[in-house]
Amino acid sequence: MSSPSADRSAQVVAVVGATGRQGSAVVRHLLREGWAVRALTRNPASETARSLQAGGASLVTVDAEDVGTLLTAFDGAYGVFNVQNPMTVGIDGELRQGANVATAAARCGVQHVVYGAAGIGPGRTGVGSWDSKNTVAEHFRRQGVPLTVLRPMAFMELMTDRAYYPAVSVWHVMPRLMGGDRPVGWLCTDDLGAVAARVFAAPRRWVDTDLTLVADVRTIDECRALWAELHGRARRSFPMPVWLFERFVGTDLTTMWRWLRTAQFEMSTATTREILPEARTVREWLAALDGDARAEDIRG
Fold this sequence. Notes:
CATH topology of one domain: Rossmann fold
Strand content: 15-25%
CATH superfamily of one domain: NAD(P)-binding Rossmann-like Domain
Number of strands: 10
Number of helices: 14
Distance between the termini: 49 Å
Helix content: 40-55%
Order of helices and strands: EHEHEHEHEHEEHEHHEEHHHHHH
């Protein structure tokens, strides 16, 4: 493994899932730091893909189920950012695609993979979308690929992004199962992108590490109070029975929230602050929400 050169524009980082929340944040921050970026996507015609291209990324069409397309995308790349979304491809799809990325990265001689994972670290929890991340990480290690694992716990966007149905999930079912007074480790996706870019820039410090990423620790009750304080009204919630929520989204999230009700584990902000001292707290992030994000609450 060698360190990236001072001229990062001559070195390529390929970003898997570039049009997703994590991937697009990573692309933006890598471009700001001067890297050459290949934004990997199944749909290069999407609005997000075109936006990344306009910002300086090269679009590459891939299907993570097809190792051949990944080999083409990784050819000559210094680094790879890897992420899979089990909510869209399922746990089995996540495992297949993660193994394919590991195989392609090894064959192409990629010098540093940064993996946007989740969970609390090695060891089984019974939470499918956490345990799967450990399996994917092991694929990379067995292939001998230099690896850094990033483990954000809860993204702040869970509180506002309509795709997460926050009125039902984080503001109702989550505190009901986990407890509104249980601490949660938070990080916003943009700061995840900034952390990933800084990790790529310092491989000698971060290769072969498994990093818990927490910028702030707040309970759901505290987040609800901050919302009311900053925006002048209570955060909306929509009461839905747990069984009905599970019918829509499955049991992975409810299993996670029940596990978090009693589990004890490390939620230090120290690593995040070492890499990104300016990482935003929940208060700072909520205070900076634009009008569109606040309007989502009014619309429900």
